[in-house]
Amino acid sequence: MKRLWQAIRYNIKRVMDSDPAADSVWMVLWTYPHITALFWHFFAHRLYKRGYKLLARRIALHSRRVTGIEIHPGATIGRGLFIDHGMGVVIGETAIVGDDVTLFHGVTLGGMSSKKVKRHPTVGNDVLIGAGTKVLGDITVGDHSRIGCNLVIKRDVPANVVIYETEPENIVSRRHKPTIHIVDGHGHSDQDQREDHSETGRHIPRHRIAFTPKNMTKEMAWYI
To answer: CA–CA distance from 191 to each of 194, 204, 211 (Å)?
Structure first.
């Protein structure tokens, strides 16, 4: 129980530090649904690991009905998870969520396989995932990365990048330095592609080349 109360206190403090709408500790404790969801997950996860899977799933089901947040009791959740608004968030059985992660409403940490294997994402520390984004499969999201809204992520995300757009074969991202690059699914860098195309003189579609806006800030990149 000591660990539970320590976790609750840390989660409340993180909300107070992160959310300007949080006016008091009592407001966070009584009105933020993820606090309730994490409270029930604390017990459900331990029951699940000890083999009481049916009871664990019933507790998780009750938590979903009350909060609108579905966390499978098998999921491993680090401390300080902040699920803002909360409604519609789904975290799968084999998902691993690091410390100080922020998820917005509608986020799914889902699987891509029906086999009993590690099939859900591993999310690093201090990661933010925007509303409606689906992170699917046994992939890794690196520490301190930011992922925009309404995206589908099915490949590993490096640490310390901002992902604001995805395509079927590409992930468009920006590191903390003001440089945007495209990583394709075949291991080719955007710089190599630009050099190859410049030699042949062929037209390069806009979405296939890298670009570096002179005045782009983190906030601007986030909303593109």
So the answer is: 5, 12, 10
